[in-house]
Amino acid sequence: MDEILRLLKSRSHVLDLGSGSGSFQCSRPDITVVRADLGKPSNPPVRFVICSANSLPFRDKFFEAVVCNHSMEHFEKLQDCVAEIARTLAPSGFLYISVPDASTLTDKLYRWLARGGGHVNAFTDVHKVPDLIASASGLRLAGARVLFTSLSFLNRGNIVSKRPRKALLLGNGNETVLKLGTLVLRYLDRCFGWRTSVYGWAYYFGDVPDVDCSTWSNVCVRCGSGHPSLLLEQTNRVTHRRLWFSTYECPRCGTCNYFTADG
User: Fold this and answer.
1) 21-59 residue pLDDT tens
2) Domains (ranges, CATH) in the chain?
3) Within 10 A of 118 (CB to CB), how many other CB atoms are there?
4) Is 94 within 8 Å of 171 (Cβ atoms)?
5) What is d(CA 146, CA 21) in angstroms, rounded to the nearest whole number?
6) pTM, whole model, 2 decimals?
7) Number of C-alpha atoms within 13 angstroms, CB side, residue 97?
């Protein structure tokens, strides 16, 4: 959602909805980010509000941008939640939404391991989210991107609760195993036209110019952030090898991942 954050004017307000302690990092001190979720995280940010997405305690048209980053699949009473987002968003505001594709291997693994994982809304059609937003707010869809997975939800370094026994069948969250697994999925997809490494979709709403809709196949196995392969190469983060696969250093957390060229 960096494309949206760059467009915001000074003193803008952003709602990070269903975020826990925060679903993204913001480097702009001149804008106010409010994090909101049903429960208080163990390490809450400065501006955190406990609330339900279907009854937001904010006045009409208060936010210049709303972010629902991997959260809408958890929202009860989805229609009411979308109506509340539309109510609190300024008419010229921006909206970013990312959701998993419930038909993909990644989401099926997540729900199998976590006994549903709180996913009460199953998105299997790329048009469902834009249709919901259009009917509630009339916001224009500026662009959409297919998201790839890194299986970071399996990474035992990211799991604070007890890991389910089923995780043993998937390497028990070992980071090296996950790196190899995602690399294999990428190449299977390229060879056979499958979608085993796809996670879901990201949507940009509002007057967002020149949205980059290309697919980024390099997603960090630890922090889950995606980066375009061209940018990784231009910033000298890629180590090319002749006999073994190339690797890159994640710009966000510094983790070494296997590298694949986009496209």
Assistant:
1) 899 989 899 999 999 999 998 888 889 999 999 999 999
2) 1-101+118-148+198-210 (3.40.50.150), 150-196+214-263 (no CATH)
3) 12
4) no
5) 25
6) 0.94
7) 28
